[in-house]
Amino acid sequence: MKVSVSELIVRYLERLGIEHIFGMPGAHVLPIYDHLHGSRVHSVLVKHEQGAAFMAGGYARVSHKISACIATAGPGATNLVTGIANAYAERLPVLVITGETSTYIFGKGGLQESSGEGGAIDQGSLFSGITRYHKLIERTDYLGQVLNQATRALFARDPGPVLLSIPYNVQKELVDASVLDRLHIPRHSEAIPTQSGPVAELTRLIETADDPVIVAGYGAIKAGARGVVARLSEALGIPVASSLKAKGVVSEGSRWSLGCLGVTSNGDAYRYIVEHADLVIFLGAGFNERTSYLWDSKLLAGKKVAQVDRDASQLNKVFKADVAIHGDIREVLTELLALLESDAASRGLSGVVANSRLEKLAGHRRLANQPSDEEETEKRAQFRLMEAFFSGLAKHFPEDAMIFDDNIVFAQSYFDVSHANHYFPNSGISSLGHAIPAAIGARFFSKTSPAFAILGDGGFQMCCMELMTAVNYAIPLNVVVINNASMGLIRKNQFQLYGERYIDCDFVNPDFRLLAQSFGIHHYKIEQEADLDDLFAKADLTGSINLIEIMLDKNAFPTYLSAR
User: Of 182, 209, 226, which marks where a domain is finished?
Assistant: First the structure.
């Protein structure tokens, strides 16, 4: 049976289990759109192609499934770049479909041509560094091989975006529908064999350590190891700090949680590790710039270091580990627990030793909660609304909420993420304008989970029109805008590092109440803590679209220093 390439591509999307494709139609992809009509794949019309890429990323991040976005040739494709770069950095399986001018006008100056011929932009080169696989499909005779290559990259153990660019005339050519029958779709990623020798070595390190600390990264969450990390921590009395991306790997605020380790955090986890730890166990944590405090040597000085990661390239990348284990984190920890629990010497750890560690941790918390001086007390008062907001968020939404956070600074210090919540900081390439479309994409998958997009007023103005996408599709969403009428990070840096020579960091905001009214959504302005009480008591934060504006003094600066 013969079908057009455009129909085959839509059938391919269905085979991959894709339910939504985010994008914007253009002349060069209309054949594909025509076959989306009536398909099981539902198209979602965005306001800008960057939003489509971020939505696809948000969907993939929450669902752990392949997602998709689509754009026309030329500017449609180039507008995707930032969102696809973010997906690449996050290792998200996003299938990107773009159109192209017909092959018979390559090099002749076709409208929006991006073939790379005759002075046209080279779309393939543009995406080559931010995709796991990319292909301009100029013929149909190798289409089956191309789709298999694309599928392999999307289902890989470390996946990433895949770009298929299809010229207009090729979309209309006929191919045999049986091409899809030869498609190999792997259902399980390749298992990593457990290395029993290093696990035994790690067991001995833990048994001989006085004050071990776990630093859990997103790799632990991705491995489904939340439960076993908590069991290990509780059974052996080991405090747990997380990277920013792994907030909630164990419930923050629980007795063994040190909170978030990171340069923009309140520093509690850092101080505990520097002052007390003699063994640091990294579980799926890359020890990047944020987590490592710009690779501060004091953090690991004089300590034994162990590292477990399923990504071999992460092992010993930044530091030399005493024990480095390449393996599945959940499986390694399960074996580790079995070894420790079967060792008679280790059973005492749950008693006297654990209680001693808990007392030490409690003393550390008491000191951390006491402001060291009047200046610190004043600093905390400047951010009381942010602290109260995140405290209310944790209290009223203890589970199943999705929080997409572009700001990160306040949440890192003030938001206790439970193991039952889902916190998605803007990591990747840290692009402004990410939170709103990413949260919308996630909401298309998780239709009952309350969603919050938290961002500054500068980032909001990069993506605010995607609020109309939420309105168009009746997607409940809470957008929290921190209003200080400035690019806060830039202004902070210019205050701390550039002699208060402020340039291009301040601006005038729109009237957010009127803006929300024009969108047909609810608006709440938070100027004092009583406003927060009303918000959480009266606003529908699960079933409606809300724009929540939190006022902040532009001269209130967090004390951390950015990289220089």
Answer: 182
Please report, for residues 481, 485, 510, 547, the alpha-carbon distance to residue 436 in angstroms, rounded to integers and kept in the order given.
Answer: 10, 19, 18, 11
The domain boundary residue, chosen from 153, 182, 211: 182
CA distance 372 to 176: 73
Report phi then psi at 227, rounded to 5. -65, -45
328-359 burial string, b = 16+ CB within 10 Å, else e?
bbbbbbbbbbebbeeeeebeebeeebbeebee
How crowded is residue 23: how many other Cβ atoms within 10 Å of its Cβ? 29
DSSP state string for 493-506: HHHHHSTT---S-B
Per-residue model confidence as pLDDT tens digits over 115-148:
778 878 888 899 999 999 999 999 999 999 999 9
Range of the domain at 499: 374-551
pLDDT per residue over 450-462, tens digit each?
999 999 999 999 9
Shared-domain flag, residues 299 and 429 = no
Q: Are strands 2-4 and 174-176 parallel, antiparallel or unpaired?
A: antiparallel
Strand 477-483 with 212-216, pairing? unpaired
- How many structural domains are present in the chain? 3
List, in sequence order, the alpha helices (H) in 403-557: 409-414, 435-445, 457-463, 467-472, 488-497, 512-519, 529-538
The DSSP letter of residue 191 is P
- Inside any domain, residue 68: yes
SS3 411: helix
Q: Do 155 and 231 belong together in one domain?
A: no
